[in-house]
Amino acid sequence: SEEPAPDTGNPEIQWEDARAGRRPAPLGWFVLIGLFLLVVGVWAIARMVTGERKLEERAEVVEALVEAEEETDKDARILMGAVEEILTKYLAATTVAERLPTVRHPGRVAPLMEDYYRTRPLEPQGLRKVDYLRPVTIGQRPFLYVRASLQNGRTEPFVLEQESRFGLKIDWESGVAYQPMPIEEYLSTKPTEAMDFRVYLAKDAHYVFEFADAERYRSYFLTFKGSEEFLFGYTERGSETDRQLLDYFARSKQAILPALLRVRIPEGAAARRSVVIEELLATRWAYLEDPTEP
Hints:
Layout (H helix, E strand, L loop, with lengths): L26 H22 L6 H38 L3 H4 L6 H13 L8 E12 L2 E10 L4 E8 L5 E3 L1 H5 L6 H7 L5 E9 L13 E7 L6 E7 L3 H13 L3 E9 L9 E9 L12
Parallel strand pairs: 7-9
Antiparallel strand pairs: 1-2, 2-3, 3-4, 5-6, 5-8, 6-7, 8-9
Helix pairs in contact: 1-2
């Protein structure tokens, strides 16, 4: 029988915080950072531009810097207002129909939400404040990671796609760590069709049964938010998926990473917890494109 892999620690990391243990900066820091950059810019200009004949030119450059800083601050305030507005609407929803206009891919996720909330009450919440906000890029697409305090005292993370300059939509699937089925059910029923799971991924050295050949396969340890269950995932060494995962770990320099993986249990598999990793769909938990669209 298969033994669990050595404890990876599996900290309750969110997909957006996986890099180097970095935390999002408090909002107040952006103002301080902006002021610091402005001061540094003025100082550099003063060092480079000398002589009385250049005083007027220097003043014009400094004025341009101040105007740019004011414009950046204005944009940041507008964006923060947009974040607060969509979070308020999302949290206040009492039905799926009310929540749908605030989320990405509403046509695809509507039946998923209906099924999800059939066994979980959709309780409205009030937004108290946005604690952190950080821009992140997923596949060259702009997203925002937001951590917000709710009126009930809880702090929740949110992933928002920036569809336009100030147009935002919430990635519902990331927020609830949506899975096609509970991992416990997946292990007991062992469906052989490929499924997409949101996982925490770590390198491993577990090679058994169909995947005993360590020279042919590469092993990974897969864990799941809110569950103590786990899987062993395998890529074929040298395959496109294998190269993508190796690159992901090399770039992040972290032992445990969030990922959206397409996995499959081989027909007639002897290993209870072993799956083939067919595809790395995203290096976070959000689909870049609607997978149901051609």
